[in-house]
Amino acid sequence: MEVDMGWLDFIFKKKDKAEFVQLYEEYSKEIIPAQRPISQLSFIVLDTETTGLNPEKAEMVSFGAVKITRSKIQVESAKEHYFDTSAKNQEALKVHGILYPQNPTKPEVFAKELLPFLHNHILVGHHIGFDLKVLGKFLAPFGLKKITNPVLDTQYLATRLEKGYHYDVGMGKPGEYTLDSLCERYGIQLDDRHTAAGDAFLTAQLLLKLLKKAEKIGIADYRTLMR
């Protein structure tokens, strides 16, 4: 029996990279100069709310982000998206309370908007590794293999500034470096907690406090900040 190989190729062909993914990958090749002062760096502070705590299985329910340039939060840049999901994890619902979002964003619309927004800015979050895994899985169907921006975790930065490079968070007081604890310690009012946009804005405020502390002890440029 003859088999139409062209038809099989069509069936099994891997999804090509979307054009906006290709453009993102080109932009992300831009190198941030090592000596660029902290005050001239640009950051995208982001957060996700999900259906669970396992990033391999969790689905993204909402996404929030805001840009920081020249040491100022650009409020007009803030982004907030909600998504339809098939999973309804009861424990996660107790935290973020999102069940049936109104006017959910379609994945392709989100991806087309997000990747140009990320450009080659430094991505910031609290426990950001989790968020990036969730985002990476969400964007994979469009051909993105990896989010390649420089990354800074506010928990790591806070512990580094307060305890030194080699401090093990697990050896300290329980909850000492949660977002709640750090916001309270640095005088940041806990508004709109456990929404992606709200947590992104809180983390942005925390980042600015930490960057000021960093500059006071001689961490003044991109290279030393990202060490």
Task: Note the topology.
Blueprint: H1 5-12, H2 19-27, E1 42-50, E2 60-69, E3 72-82, H3 90-96, H4 107-118, E4 122-125, H5 128-139, E5 151-153, H6 154-163, H7 179-185, H8 196-216, H9 222-225
Parallel strand pairs: 1-4, 4-5
Antiparallel strand pairs: 1-2, 2-3
Describe the structure.
The chain is built from nine helices and five strands; from the N terminus they run ααβββααβαβαααα. The chain has helices at 5-12, 19-27, 90-96, 107-118, 128-139, 154-163, 179-185, 196-216, 222-225, and strands spanning 42-50, 60-69, 72-82, 122-125, 151-153. Strands 3-2-1-4-5 form a five-stranded mixed β-sheet, with helices on both faces. α2 (19-27) packs parallel to α4 (107-118). It starts with a helix and ends with a helix. Residues 1-14 and 92-97 have low confidence and may be disordered.
